[in-house]
Amino acid sequence: IQLGFNHRKWNVKEEHFEIIGGVLLETLQDSLQDQFTPKVEQAWLKFFNSVSIYMKFGLTQLNNS
Questions:
Q1: What is the helix (H) or strand (E) element at residue 37, kind and residue range?
Q2: What's the predicted TM-score (pTM) here?
Q3: Closest by alpha carbon to 44, among 12, 20, 13?
Q4: How many Cα neighbours within 13 Å face the side chain of 2?
Q5: How far from chain centre, in Å, is Cα 4?
Q6: In what helix (H) or strand (E) does residue 1 lie, and over which residues does it extend?
């Protein structure tokens, strides 16, 4: 939550998370190549989505205070 709270100073918006998530997956796919399996992709998506939920909450809390 604090990480999202801190990102407001860079004018991060909730819609940026979808863009970053896509770039993260592309970067992982390029780096891992054959090791980037559907299982690895799903694990990273689950991780990123979990982190995003808390970061978005932190952004929202700061925007509302």
A1: none
A2: 0.81
A3: 20
A4: 0
A5: 10
A6: none
Which CATH number does 2-63 carry? 1.10.490.10
Which residue did the predictor score with more confidence, 58 or 64? 58
The tokens describing 4, both together, are 């999202």
DSSP letter string over the chain? -HHHHHGGGGT--TTHHHHHHHHHHHHHHHHHGGG--HHHHHHHHHHHHHHHHHHHHHHHHHHT-
Q: What pLDDT does 65 receive?
A: 54
The answer to whether residue 61 scores a pLDDT higher than 70 is yes
Contact predicate 5/58, CB 8 Å: yes
